[in-house]
Amino acid sequence: MRHALLRIAAVALASGVSAIALLGVGRLVLIGDLGIALPPLTAIGTSVITSPNPAAQAAVLSDLAAPEASPTATPRPAASATETPSAKPASLALSSFRSGGRSYVGVVVTDADRTFVAPFAGTVEIRVYQLIDSEVRVGSNVPTLPFYPYISIIGSDRKIIYRPGTLSAVTEVLALDGATIAAGDPLFRLLGPGRSSWTTFYNPSAPYQVVVSLQTLPGGRDLDPSIYFSGS
After folding, report:
1. Exposure class string for 192-226: b at 16+ Cβ within 10 A, else e
2. What is residue 30's DSSP assignment?
């Protein structure tokens, strides 16, 4: 009995050694012929979960092209509006003529609301005339008839007289009688269309809105008043 057990143990030992030898030979054949590395025996039958490689993830993320921001158009400042220059008054049409041995200048005004200013310093003199029974009278006061102003400036060596149209309807006097005035100060303003008193008093066909005369003081010698309208 004892002898039989020893034989069984010897056979089992030989079988185990043979199995180990065969397994080692098989691994050598696989590694040498196919170049395949077998996992260690201790890993057989166990599942291995490998954690992701942070470096690999960073590399993958860095390879993803970030979307480029589309360039936004920089708003340009709006062009500043330039100020429109104020309309320049229309030029005056001047006509020199003589009447009764004296010299005058007729002024045709094409635009309404024209203001006339003093051409030189002096004292303002205002006289108001009316045509009564075909006679020109100064200082009269007939309410039913139009009034026509004569607006003068008496300077140190000359006197200029303006003869515009009727008061209120055509002419607004801006200066006061007897006032001292400087060059450039307003004298009167034309409110609308209307001819000079010259048309009513002396010549119905005269087309002028204002008739102007200029004389020296003393002496009363005629001068040319058109020099004061240059550039108008």
Report:
1. eebbbbbbbbebeebebbbbbbbbeeeeeeeeebb
2. H
CATH number of 93-229: 2.70.70
Percent of the chain with pLDDT over 70: 60
On the question of a cis peptide bond just before residue 218, with omega within 30 degrees of 0, the verdict is: yes
The pTM for the full model equals 0.63
Q: Per mean pLDDT, which range of 75-84, 91-100, 127-136, 154-163 is the poorest?
A: 75-84
Residue 91: what pLDDT?
76
Residue 53 has pLDDT above 90, yes or no: no
Query: Rounded to whole angstroms, how far apart are CA atoms 209 and 106?
Result: 8
Q: Which of 169, 171, 163, 172 is nearest to 200 (CA)?
A: 163
Residue 112 neighbours by CB under 8 Å, 6+ apart: 190, 191, 192, 193
Q: Do 175 and 181 meet the contact criterion of CB atoms below 8 Å apart? A: yes
Q: Compute the half-sphere exposure of residue 5: CA atoms within 13 Å on the CB side of its CA.
A: 2
Q: For the chain, give every domain's residue range.
A: 1-38, 93-229
Confidence band for 112, pLDDT divided at 50, 70 and 90? confident
With a CB cutoff of 8 Å and minimum separation 6, the contacts of 202 are 99
Residue 34: φ, ψ to 5°: -105, -15
Q: Return d(Cα 171, Cα 152) in angstroms, integer.
A: 14
